[in-house]
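User: Can you recover a sequence for this backbone? Please restate the input before giving your answer.

Assistant: Of course. Working from this structure:
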């Protein structure tokens, strides 16, 4: 279809996309790279590729902005700015959502839902901007002294985000940065840099001062590492793989940066025989297949009570078979391609592993046929008896669901927790006591009962164990962007 051509997007006007530093579009010292659309594998834009020199320029612009006029903005000024940005995002959303679909492959049916999420997030954090407060503390020091705490913005923040949903994941550093009065250097992944570059333009037009939000796409080992190590960056907010998260934490030691790392997962989804099985089957399928399996909290380990195992696994496989895979720009598409050639190859290696281990492939297990050069794969359900199989333990980051039978509540809790990860987890049951017991027993940062993947900016989102630390969202998040100082005042004279 003609209107589905990725080339027809207004942002993809044939001009190279530059870095956004100090309020200006600038060329990268690091050169350029080819930005690819995963629906066809075609090059859609030439994009500036930041390196360590570019990161240094961006950090310096962010520091200058932090110390400049921005530091005089009142909380109310920042709130008004954020509400103006929310309006601007709303106005430009149709193009922004399509750009994200073109760049990383999620269907417009999915990216379209983020219109409301973007509004909610900017508006929620706008309210936080005017709620920053210190405390007056009583003390018993002889004589009369008053003590109070004073909050101040932390400084320059580095945001390092992955490619599986950059339009949304960047909000977790942009919004607390603006609400607190910090400044930001955002480094999107080479696989999907476009929504971050476009959002920075929209924010600048809405009145964000030069240097407050800077965007430098670049490779992880060069630009990413330079940001994580930088001596003038006060905090890193990272989302990505567990292996890279460890490097971020190590790099932070150089200048004692604070860090939040939201990492990988292999989240358990537990279905008891007494659940509403039709609802649970759709919930369990989409817990893993949504965004073509490229979600950190994907419910990729499905534990099913043995008495309903065969019947339930077939229901889930049937949901997978019915999903419409196709062009991300077609409004009827439910599953787009994987985001990159590397991810496509990675998922196929797991298909090969499933075959070589002789696993029972109930549906999928192949690249999706008939869709040309794009990185499409079939939603896949594997029936796995051994909870220690590599497919059950490793994060695949594709639409590959392992269904494992269990015999008792105690057994399933043991299996569910026997992983290094601890991000999400869910339980489906009509027995309310059992549901609460299991939700409490799961070692994870976010647990769902009779639903999966429900989130909201006003609630917290975090991992445990090797899924990382640092709560995003909720009333506490902004505190990570503020320092606290205790002030003593001698009232005796
Ligand atoms: P990655 O964690 O290496 O990349 C995420 C971000 O970190 C990107 O912006 C990248 O440029 C940056 N980065 C990479 N190396 C860095 C370094 N040394 N210092 C600073 N920044 C660095 O993940 P990648 O390689 O894109 O994907 C590999 C696998 O990781 C996926 O197949 C998936 O299993 C997992 N992953 C998990 C995510 C999640 O949200 N749980 C998100 C992305 C990937
Ligand atoms: Mg791309």
């Amino acid at each position: 279809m003609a209107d589905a051509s990725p080339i027809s997007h207004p942002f993809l006007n044939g001009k190279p996309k530059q870095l956004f530093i100090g309020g200006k579009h600038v060329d990268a010292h690091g050169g350029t790279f080819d930005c690819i659309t995963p629906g066809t594998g075609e090059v859609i834009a030439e994009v500036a590729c930041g390196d360590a020199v570019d990161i240094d320029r961006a950090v310096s612009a962010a520091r200058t902005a932090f110390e400049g006029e921005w530091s005089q903005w009142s909380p109310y000024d920042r709130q008004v700015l954020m509400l103006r940005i929310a309006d601007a995002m709303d106005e430009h959303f149709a193009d922004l959502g399509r750009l994200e679909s073109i760049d990383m492959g999620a269907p417009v049916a999915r990216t379209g839902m983020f219109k409301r999420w973007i509004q909610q997030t900017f508006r929620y954090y706008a309210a936080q901007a005017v709620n920053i407060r210190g405390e007056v503390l009583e003390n018993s020091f002889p004589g009369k002294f008053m003590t109070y705490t004073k909050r101040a913005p932390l400084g320059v923040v580095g945001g390092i985000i992955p490619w599986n949903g950059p339009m949304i994941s960047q909000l977790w550093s942009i919004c607390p940065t603006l609400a607190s009065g910090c400044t930001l250097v955002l480094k999107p992944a080479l696989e999907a840099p476009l929504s971050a570059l476009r959002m920075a333009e929209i924010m600048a037009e809405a009145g964000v001062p030069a240097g407050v939000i800077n965007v430098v796409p670049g490779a992880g080992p060069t630009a990413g590492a330079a940001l994580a190590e930088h001596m003038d960056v006060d905090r890193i907010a990272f989302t990505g793989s567990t292996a890279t998260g460890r490097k971020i934490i190590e790099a932070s030691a150089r200048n004692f940066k604070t860090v939040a790392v939201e990492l990988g997962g292999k989240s358990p989804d537990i279905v008891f025989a007494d659940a509403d099985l039709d609802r649970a089957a759709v919930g369990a399928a989409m817990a893993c297949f949504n965004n073509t399996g490229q979600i950190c909290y994907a419910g990729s380990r499905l534990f099913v009570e043995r008495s309903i195992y065969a019947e339930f696994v077939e229901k889930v496989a049937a949901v997978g078979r019915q999903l419409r895979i196709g062009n991300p720009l077609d409004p009827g598409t439910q599953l787009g391609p994987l985001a990159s050639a590397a991810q496509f190859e990675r998922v196929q290696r797991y298909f090969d592993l499933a075959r070589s281990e002789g696993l029972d492939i109930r549906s999928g297990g192949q690249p999706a046929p008939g869709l040309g050069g794009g990185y499409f794969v079939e939603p896949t359900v594997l029936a796995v008896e051994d909870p220690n199989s590599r497919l059950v333990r490793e994060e695949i980051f594709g639409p590959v669901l392992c269904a494992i039978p269990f015999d008792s509540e105690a057994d399933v809790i043991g299996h569910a927790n026997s992983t290094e990860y601890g991000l999400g987890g869910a339980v489906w049951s009509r027995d309310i006591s059992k549901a609460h017991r299991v939700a409490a027993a799961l070692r994870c940062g976010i647990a769902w009962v009779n639903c999966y993947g429900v989130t909201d900016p006003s609630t917290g989102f975090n991992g445990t164990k090797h899924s990382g630390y640092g709560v995003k969202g909720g009333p506490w998040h902004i505190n990570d962007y503020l320092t606290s100082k205790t002030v003593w005042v001698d009232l005796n004279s």
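That completes the design. The two ends are 81 Å apart (CA to CA).
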